[in-house]
């Protein structure tokens, strides 16, 4: 238990120095390596390593005994929400790895290609990426599966490859933002204390108008051309993806959803995939665990760092600072409006993502401030979780130094900046979200 009650915590800007150090190390090395021409510069120094000096600094700055400070840190690491989030990461990674190894991704891509008419190529690839990202819960995994096919189609059809790359990233970001097994969704819902299905529905109200706008835009930017031959569609292999979507929307516990997905994907492999045995299944599950190692460790370390900084007054300082700014924006003198608080949540995670270039990490870092703003100013948990995920998605999709633009730029032989300029969905999503914040009807206080 903390030695200082929350009511005695005094706001302190000094307590934020560890977070600033983390951002400086992570962002500074990324900028330096970018100037040196290093590919994936912002991903050369793993975030869990970059946060270690920040943790040491937080301990040094603490006015408590080292034993009390370390206890605060371990309490943050062991917070029930953090642990639950980590367990969900493991299950999500296991499902993605098993489903991919048993052919689910290929069959899902082929299913999408079989449904696209030649006059609907660009919007079609947006939809394919959106569906696969929603099912897989990862934009990067989606790009790895869809981008090579999209490049071939674009070259065959004479479509601007930058526009095709932007369409694929747009769909991947749409699906990643909505997916219930996405690490961004997991981080947003667990830190804000809401159900995944509630956040999904809240997101959908904002994301669907944006997606429709992108589809219309891509339709007019596209052209009519023949598609490449479509590979085999094995509906059994697509079934696990469909099942977890149905179960998630139905409100089934996320552990049951993901556990069922791992079992179903494994059974598909055992009965439908040649030479796939129990040992392969076990190895794929562990591979999925390993794939989530970085974000899992980071979530725990950030949880501990956040607890120490909060105890030292860092969170209280941020909230007080934002409250002052929002109070000036408020229509009601002396009271911060819900609209202003929601804009504050959006601003915090957006600025964090600009610095970190990782939407999941940004959500984790900004979640404490967002939670406090939401609790103080009557923002529903599903609403704050949705805003965290949406604005992290918006910024991440537009960053030329983000992993998505870097990956497509490398695969399509394009400048990452050229790619990011053609990712239309995050731009329209941001506009949709801001308009919703401003004009949405709310119950009067």
The helix content, as a percent range, equals over 70%
End-to-end Cα distance, whole Å, is 35 Å
Supply the helix-strand structural class.
mainly alpha
Radius of gyration: 22 Å
Uncertain residue ranges: 1-7
Mean pLDDT: 81
Would you kindly provide a brief summary of this structure?
With 445 residues, the chain is mostly helical. Helix content is 76%, strand content 0%.
How would you characterize this protein structure?
With 445 residues, the chain is an all-alpha fold. Among the domains are: 45 residues, no CATH class; 209 residues, no CATH class. Helix content is 76%, strand content 0%. The longest helix is centred in the middle third of the chain and has 26 residues. The N terminus is likely disordered.
Key structural traits:
21 helices, 445 residues, disordered N terminus
Task: Draw up the topology in text.
Blueprint: H1 17-35, H2 47-61, H3 66-77, H4 80-101, H5 104-114, H6 121-136, H7 139-157, H8 161-178, H9 183-192, H10 196-221, H11 235-249, H12 254-272, H13 278-291, H14 293-311, H15 314-329, H16 338-356, H17 359-376, H18 381-398, H19 403-412, H20 416-420, H21 424-439
Helix pairs in contact: 1-2, 2-14, 3-14, 4-9, 4-12, 4-13, 4-14, 5-6, 5-11, 6-7, 6-8, 6-10, 7-8, 7-19, 8-10, 8-18, 8-19, 9-17, 9-18, 10-18, 10-21, 11-12, 14-17, 15-16, 15-17, 16-17, 16-18, 17-18, 18-21
